[in-house]
Amino acid sequence: MTTSSKKRGRRRLSGPILTLVFSVISLVYLYPLFIMAVNSFKKKAFISRAPFALPTDSRMFAGLSNYQLGIARTDFWMSLIYSVVITVLSVALILLCTSMCAWYISRVENRITRALYLAFIFSMVVPFQMVMFTLSKVANTLHLNTPLSIPIVYLGFGAGLAVFLFTGAMRSVPLAVEEAAMIDGCTPPAIFFHVVLPILQPVCVSTGILQAMWIWNDYLLPYLVLDVKRYRTIPIAVQYLKGGYGSVDMGAMMAVLTLAILPIVLLYLFCQRYIVSGVMAGAVKG
């Protein structure tokens, strides 16, 4: 048996084994979500008594009462609107501003752009706890405490990772493509929006998903910046399910949490094909 045939045999053997291993790992990650969804249909007393049991008994099954109670007590639909508005505006602002910044940094090489790039990288190291009190004061002073203005704050915190990803992708894009567009008479804005941005589509999708998951699930920044008496995102609204002395209605909380994760899961499933196609397209250079 030759060396090449041995290698092919090992690959054929390792393929099913890796598939089995990663399938088991996927089930381990999905199991907590499954338990949460199951408990959202159980009565409160049975959630703590039998958290892993299916609600097959009529005494355990609560129907949609947990969902109705959770939606009513948290004003869920209004919180959903606030979360959607903040997430969409923040991600759009981050993608637009950081992609243009990364394009400038990758094409103009001098001390200023290098220092700017290092500043963005350094911002990823600074923990949020170091600046949260100063940030809340500045946000109140500049009136950035509404769902329409808090995306500016998210832009500052999300720019570091986004610029890092966009800059790495831009450095792999050949400059000849932009020069050809310039010869055809394109202006710099036209080159960016019609030539550069379509090439960066896989990176835009990947960065957008990362930023959307972070912003959608963020609790501390909206709680410090927003006026929580008027604007409550979903993570903040969930906290209002707590009763006196720290008691929690677990059934209503499981129901609200199940509803809260559905939009971001659907977004990931919808954009997954763009991520995979982008990785495959970028794996081969012509």
User: What is the CA-atom radius of gyration, in angstroms?
Assistant: 24 Å
Share in β-strands: under 5%
CATH superfamily of the domain at 75-241, called what?
MetI-like
Low-pLDDT runs: 278-286
Shape, per Cα inertia axes: globular
Q: List the secondary-structure elements in sequence, H or E.
A: HHHHHHHHHHHHH
Class per helix and strand makeup: mainly alpha
Q: Count the helices. How many?
A: 13
- Binned, the helix content reads over 70%
Measure the end-to-end span: 36 Å
CATH architecture name of the domain at 75-241: Orthogonal Bundle
Q: How many β-strand runs? A: 0
CATH class value of the domain at 75-241: Mainly Alpha
Question: Mean pLDDT, rounded to whole units?
Answer: 83
CATH names the topology of the domain at 75-241 as MetI-like fold
Largest sheet: none
Briefly summarize what is shown.
With 286 residues, this protein is mostly helical.
Task: Based on the model shown, name its key terms.
mainly alpha; 13 helices; 0% strand; single chain; disordered C terminus; MetI-like fold; 286 residues
Description:
The chain has helices at 3-39, 44-49, 65-74, 76-107, 111-123, 132-141, 150-170, 175-183, 188-199, 201-217, 220-225, 234-238, 250-282. The chain has 286 residues and is mostly helical. It has a domain at 75-241: MetI-like (MetI-like fold). It is globular and about 75 Å long.
